[in-house]
Specification:
There is one protein chain. This protein is mainly alpha-helical. The chain has a two-stranded antiparallel sheet with strand order 1-2. Helix 1 packs antiparallel against helix 2. The radius of gyration is 15 Å and the shape is elongated.
């Protein structure tokens, strides 16, 4: 992960551009190039979100993509158990400045 939010943002923008390029040049959403670009975009998003939070205490107003395992963890968390989301677990802190909790 990039600790500098500015560098992470630059990587995120590059990943968005790559995803657009691949998505518009392929017809199959399951094409390996599309899947790879989507995974890179997901990683870049979380890297930016985490770098921003670590540096400023602020999160993005976006939830980001999560896989089904993360949704299962969220369901369990709501029932009082579970491990949380892992990457992006700061989602529960809300948007804006960290409230200390």
């Amino acid at each position: 992960m990039t600790a500098d939010p500015r560098a992470a943002l630059t990587s995120l923008v590059a990943a968005l551009e790559r995803h657009l390029e691949v998505a518009t040049s392929r017809r199959d959403p399951d094409d390996p190039a599309v899947v790879s670009a989507a995974e890179e975009l997901t990683d870049a998003f979380f890297d930016y979100d985490e770098a921003l939070f670590e540096t400023t205490g602020v999160t993005t107003p976006l939830d980001g993509p999560y896989d089904e395992d993360d949704e299962d963890d969220d369901d369990e968390e709501e029932r009082g158990g579970g491990r949380g989301r892992g990457r992006g677990e700061n989602r529960g802190r809300g948007h804006g400045v960290d409230d200390g909790g």
